[in-house]
Amino acid sequence: MGNKDNTGRIAPYHNAAGGWGALKYVALNLYRERVSAGNLNTLLSQNQPDGFDCPGCAWPDRAHTSTFEFCENGVKAVAAEATSKRVRPDFFARHTVTELMAQTDYELEQHGRLTAPMVYDHASDTYQPIAWDDAFGLIASHLHALDDPNQAAFYTSGRASNEAAFLYQLFVRMYGTNNFPDCSNMCHEATSRGLPHTVGIGKGTVTLDDFELADAILIFGQNPATNHPRMMGELRECSRRGAAIVSINPLKERGLERFQDPQSPGEMLLNSATRISSMFVQPRLGGDFALIKAVAKRVVELDDEALAAGRCRILDTEFIASHTVGFHAFARDLRSESWHVLLEESGVERDQIERLTRVYVNSERVIACWGMGLTQHQNSVATIQMLSNLMMMRGNIGRPGAGLCPVRGHSNVQGDRTVGIDERPPAQLLDRLEQVFGFTPPRAHGLDVVATIEAMIAGRVKVFVGLGGNFASATPDTPLTWQGLRQCALTVHVATKLNRSHLVHGRDALILPTLGRTEVDLQQGVAQGVTVEDSMSMVHISFGINQPASPALLSEVAIVARMAHATLGDGQVDWLARAANYALIRDDIEQVFDDFHDYNARVAKPGGFHLKVASRLREWVTDSQKAQFIVNAVNRDTPIHRARARHGERLLTMMTTRSHDQYNTTIYGLDDRYRGVFGLRRVVFIHRDDLGMLGMRAGDRVDITSVWDDGVERRADGFLLVEYDIPRGCVAAYYPETNPLVPLASVAVGAGTPTSKSIPVLLHPSQGDHHA
Ligand SMILES: Nc1nc2c(c(=O)[nH]1)N[C@H]1C(S)=C(S)[C@@H](COP(=O)(O)OP(=O)(O)OC[C@H]3O[C@@H](n4cnc5c(=O)[nH]c(N)nc54)[C@H](O)[C@@H]3O)O[C@H]1N2
Ligand SMILES: Nc1nc2c(c(=O)[nH]1)N[C@H]1C(S)=C(S)[C@@H](COP(=O)(O)OP(=O)(O)OC[C@H]3O[C@@H](n4cnc5c(=O)[nH]c(N)nc54)[C@H](O)[C@@H]3O)O[C@H]1N2
Ligand SMILES: [Mo]
Fold first, then answer.
1. What are the residue boundaries of the Molybdopterin oxidoreductase domain, all occurrences included (predicted)?
2. Does residue 199 form part of some domain?
3. Cα(708)–Cα(742) distance, rounded to whole angstroms?
């Protein structure tokens, strides 16, 4: 992945997030992508009632019913799709795959939109054009040649629409497997697996309206100024009306301090800004479980005191009595928990815990938001359940202005799971598929992302199909993953842009270019809309408006339908009829999922509709029919603890995170404005005293190795040290460059998520010359 970016500049950022800086970068991106005048209009149709859903993030928007909402990183996502640059067959003729492998992810992205289906040719080491029918024929022949359908795996990235995802899961289950590795396995899986045990549903319980009523908003492990910029507008309003906003994050994210709203003429002209966080708590990486447990312990103690003094109770005793089970065991566990352990493991001082507890108990209505900072650790499931416990103690679930708010990433990652992309499908879903479509779906659970890679390496998975995404770069343990992909008999990628996964290929390989969400999707002369579900369970329809990047592109729905048709024929399902009219797929979805009743009629209304979330209504779909308090102990024997016992304080915990100029593995530019990094990506953020401890200085270059017990050397070389406000013992760097350091076997208990925010690492003075 090259080290060509090590020539940048480090300059701390002192302004508010957003503001003129955001506008400047928007202009820069539109220029870089050479977005044509016609396509510029696209930006005004983003998230409009009759426009398209922003392919950026899953944060909901009021604009689907009202006015244009401006978002710097939304513009970048749209510009990346609306670019006038093209990768045509002659580009592939001019560059061998080996040559392209030498380019960075940034360079690959810059070539523009894919225009024609391509097949890999061994003799020339190039991709060559192939007719669509021949491409589908090749897929079908590979799938037919397998001894067992479980030798194929079907990946989904969270941009796929409900229609594409539903058809895909139907095809794959009819073919005979539940192997659905999914980007969410690396993302909010701990939320989706953890919450059902406590509140019954693995989704958030709030809507945007709740933000107008909340007295406090706790933001755990999330960087909205970069990853969900539209959330900043909401936080700005909350802050202005006096709500407390607490950021719980090891990194002192500048973007969470102050925000200048590019949509507020007043703020822009006066160059003023709104303070966002009223309090900043910096736990050590992975310390949130202990921190939340400590706050819960204080809540019980304060309630004991209130009870003894005859004051108003701190616990919501009514909610606990009528809606929950397990409180007594939970409270007993909290009372016996050691303060020493909680302080040491959280890395947070006692008086900070006290202040955080006071904010929590003094607020009538609290919303807890969280992102990847909670989900990508070994103890993620337990952490999210502890947060749910804490919220339940004061009845902060299923009440106006209060609730759980997991903030999802990809714009339709939540919808994809809703409509059946699930390697562990509930029996109820399979029963319904069986009834409606008259086939026997496979019952055995399938492979998630990490298990798919393991199975490829072991030769048990031989065909890989990716509906979007960039599997080779997004996944952990890069050299091992690449070995697995290269051992495959066939790799297929449905994509809009060239990426690493197309170059790290199987014996046979296909690149199938597709329409983006911003583009008109005409089927038999009729424009088709696709539906998506945002992070707050709002479902709405999206219509593209730009001309397709190439006349040869097929929609994702069409690609899935024709792949299914070529493989299974049309005996049971008329695939091609569905590709010709997506409303038929929505009718199918309605038949399988009761909550989608009157689907076509309800998405036709501006703003769409809210999918029922039972926990929001205080209906608990758990075994006990109640919300369940869950006891979990602090784990003091994690890989990090064991590595530290071996290496002492030189052992650091590393998080991998996003810069301001990237969308996951897509690198738009080389700046991370709010963190003060310009023109480079290979950096490690580190505490000043850790620099001293290591005998190093800011500006030194280091090589990084990770510590794991399987004898494999994992390394990433040539990183610049940047002094930063981050707890001692913790460091941060960008993904995907650091993915070679994440051991494949290091996953969240109960969710299988790679622990990409707690990697045990050692830093070494750099050996090589990493300048280009
Ligand atoms: N522009 C842009 N938008 C995006 C994306 C993008 O790449 N670019 N990606 C999309 C996707 S798929 C997702 S999932 C989301 C990701 O959005 P986020 O959830 O914001 O993901 P990250 O950037 O990985 O950073 C998470 C934050 O968690 C903090 N953190 C790390 N470890 C810990 C910890 O142990 N405890 C706590 N409390 N905090 C911690 C980091 O300092 C960082 O501020 O954004 C989506 N939106
Ligand atoms: N170390 C580390 N690893 C991580 C993370 C981390 O924080 N740290 N985060 C994880 C998370 S949260 C996630 S969600 C995953 C992301 O994993 P993925 O979803 O697999 O990766 P992306 O980079 O979002 O995929 C980008 C590619 O999608 C294709 N694409 C874009 N738009 C479309 C479209 O409309 N249709 C189709 N078919 N293709 C399209 C383009 O070709 C582009 O190159 O990465 C995970 N990996
Ligand atoms: Mo994600």
1. 113-412
2. yes
3. 9
Whether residue 356 is found in the same domain as residue 493: no
How does pLDDT run across 3-23, given as a tens digit for each residue? 444 578 988 888 888 877 777
Cβ–ligand 1 contact at 251 (below 6 Å): yes
* Residue to substitute in 109, 189, 249 for testing ligand 1 pocket (most ligand atoms within 8 angstroms of CB): 249
465 CA to middle of ligand 3, Å?
19
657 C-alpha to center of ligand 1: Å? Answer: 6
DSSP state letter for 744: T
Helix axes 229-240, 72-82, angle to 10 degrees: 160
Pairing of strands 244-248, 9-10: unpaired
CATH number of the domain within which 149 lies: 3.40.50.740
Atom of ligand 1 nearest to the CA of 248: 38
- Per residue in 693-738, pLDDT (tens digit) is 999 999 999 999 999 989 899 999 999 999 999 999 999 999 999 9
pTM over 0.90: yes
CA of 224 to the centre of ligand 1 (A): 8
513 and 392 share one domain = no
Do 544 and 686 fall into the same domain? no
β-pairing verdict for 279-281 and 324-325: unpaired
Is the model more confident about 491 or about 12? 491
Confidence band for 348, pLDDT divided at 50, 70 and 90:
very high
Residue 222 structural domain? 190-406
Distance from C-alpha of 568 to C-alpha of 66, rounded to nearest angstrom: 44
Residue 696, phi-psi category: left (phi > 0), alpha (psi -120 to 50), beta (remainder): beta
The reply to whether 380 and 454 lie within a common domain is no
